[in-house]
Amino acid sequence: MAVNKAAGYDGWGVELLRHRLLMFYGNVEDTGEWPLQLARTVVVMLPKPGGEGPLGFRPVCLLSQIYRVWAKVRLPEVRRWLQINQVRTSAVELKGAEELALHLAMLQAEGRLYGEELVVLATDFAKAYDTISLGAIKEVMVAAAMPKWIAGPVLAAYHQERIVRCGMAVGQWHKPVRGLVPGCPLATYLMALLVFPWQKLAEQGGSSTRTWVDDCVAWSQGPTAQEDVAAAVRAMKVQVAAGDFVVAPHKSALVATAGALEDQLQQQVAGLGIERKAGTKDLGVPLGTVLKCRRWCVTGGRSF
């Protein structure tokens, strides 16, 4: 909105509006509460392409525009805070899905070319946004020492009454107990914080990791690849047992260039319901199959 825009009939100009909003947001950050007039959220169920039944819909939350503006303004501060605390995710590193997936696919092509063993654990969660309890979100925020002036307003908005609309059917207002809020500008950052314990444990076990929202991938190359990824599988079991995440076996896979898997890794993966597959898709890019790419890519100093 242009600063030189003429004031309306109520006499409010742009500068006055900005000043009042700053005072308002400052009060919200100090108290960790939103006014009752803004304390309601509408959840709209949008049909997925080709989806059927209850799972064939995707919820989108229509949050107050006042909250969305605040969350968007504070997003850079949250990103910096995550970087300081070494929470690495695609949202923080500003990397696209295609870049991340192609990198892993090229590592696999490189491994096959040079005879290097590569093992990849690709894990996806079922309805990740819906299953997370608000209590778990608060616990992670407290444990990570997230600043109260960020955590307070976010938690207050997430605890707001919600009403669900699906087509012409409308439910009743209720207090939620679960769910990251789809439509919240900070939701992907909160997901990064929630899966960070797995990421840290997996890397301590020797694997490289990458997360994209609720897609968690661990991989390792060389003679210790299977041992390293087995540690990442154990870390995933800890993550699932400690929280509300549920692994989606049909969207998860273990892909390996090795001919035979060690018993330890085989048993660990079976415990999560994940099977070894000849190929799977990582963020839309095939793994375990021949990669066809029209662009020039460089991985580890070698071009393909």
Question: Would you give an account of this structure?
Answer:
This protein has helices spanning 14-31, 65-84, 90-93, 97-114, 128-131, 134-143, 148-158, 187-204, 225-242, 263-271, and strands at residues 40-47, 57-62, 118-124, 161-166, 169-170, 208-212, 215-221, 253-256, 280-282, 285-287, 298-299, 302-303. It is α+β, with helices and mostly antiparallel strands and 304 residues long. The strands form four sheets. A four-stranded mixed sheet has the order 2-1-4-5, with no helix packed on it. Strands 6-7-3-8 form a four-stranded antiparallel sheet, with helices on both faces. The chain has a two-stranded antiparallel ribbon with strand order 9-10. Helix 1 (14-31) packs across helix 7 (148-158), helix 8 crosses helix 9 and helix 9 (225-242) packs parallel to helix 10 (263-271). The chain starts with 13 loop residues before the first helix and ends with a strand.
Describe how the helices and strands are arranged.
Layout: H1 14-31, E1 40-47, E2 57-62, H2 65-84, H3 90-93, H4 97-114, E3 118-124, H5 128-131, H6 134-143, H7 148-158, E4 161-166, E5 169-170, H8 187-204, E6 208-212, E7 215-221, H9 225-242, E8 253-256, H10 263-271, E9 280-282, E10 285-287, E11 298-299, E12 302-303
Helix pairs in contact: 1-7, 8-9, 9-10
